[in-house]
Fold Cytochrome oxidase I.
Amino acid sequence: MENLDVMVLRTLLAWRQAGQRALLATVVRTWGSSPRPVGSIMALCETGAVVGSVSGGCIEDDLIDRHTRAYAQAAGADRGLAHAIPSGPPTFVKYGVTADEAHRFGLPCGGTLELLLEYDPDPQSLAQLVAQLESGQLVQRTVLLADGRVSLQAAAAPAELVVDAVRLTNTFGPEYRMLLIGAGQLAEYLATMALFSGFAVTVCDPREEFVGSWNVPGAKLVRDMPDDVVAAFKPDRRCCVVALTHDPKLDDLALLEALASEAFYIGGIGSRRNNEARRARMMEHFGQTEATLQRLRGPIGVYIGSKTPPEIAVSVMAEILAVKNGVALPQGVEVARAKNERELAPTGPLVCGV
């Protein structure tokens, strides 16, 4: 699955290029709890087709009812409306202002959601935005509220959505990328999870016995040496690099190359003992220090007692998503710490002698 924002914008572009009326909805403000964060987008076509999400589904249903042929059939016959989707400058709409609305639209108690609706976005501007995102650029999109005019600018860093009385500015970034070193069974599960989480996945393995059985549609497979692949991958702040081969000749050099990048997550599979041995090798043979290895994660994942490849993949993917989302995990879920504590804990009740 591709990045959700890119998918929404590409689908919206296709509708507009086909001459169909459509709207783009953006979450601009939330109060209390909300199903989707500020900046989330969805697109709605005049046919009733929807891509993306601004809630758990109830708000989407209301927008469909308001702005598509279902609404037009109910109200258009008497009013002579050709299409229910309005036109003109962007408008704001709020959901969940009252307790009844919160219940109706599936919002938590006290939750309120405000959307900006843009009607019939310009196909040329959309095409430019999609092309920039597909080429890996970070783009700032500004919408003037008075007339809906859109301007695009290159952005140096991701930024939160900003809206005032004059304009809305939202930053769209290229999709997150994952580079896996090793094409074994664990990589298959992890790649699958990463794909449906919106990552673009590349898998590197020069070993013939592993690449021959690789079968994860949507994940790119390359067979060059891992350190060369990492260098060519050019990891940035929206990338993670995970070494899964258990072979120091493949994992170590790739991880060292990744540590010279801005990748938000760098980690290698292995036990506590293997992780300590890896760090010792890197310090002894490659001039690394505790400071330079601070970003190297291992043992990777969160502790859930995982033993099988799919369970280990869940553990690793959970940690990657937490780091991506800026969530500080409790120390108790770190694999090494959790296993150490379990080994120190009593294995059964103490029995006192007489």
